[in-house]
Amino acid sequence: LQRGVREREASEREASERAMGGPSGEDKAVCAVVMLKCPSAELLARSRDHGVWGLSESAGTALAAVLERGKSGKVALVFSVNMSGHFQGYALVSCGSPVVRRRLDIWGGLPGAREFVFAVEVAWVLAFDLPFADAKHLRSEATNKGVQTTKHGQEMSLENGCALLQVFRSAAAKHGASQAPTPRHPIKLGGGSSGPSQAASGSADDGEGAGGPALSLGSMSFEDYAGLFDKFRAVSQREGAAAFLDQLESLGWQEKEDLCKALGKNDFLDACRIVCSMNNIDFSSSRERHLEHLYDQMAP
Question: Of 59, 63, 75, 149, which has fewest CB within 10 angstroms of its CB?
Answer without folding.
Answer: 149
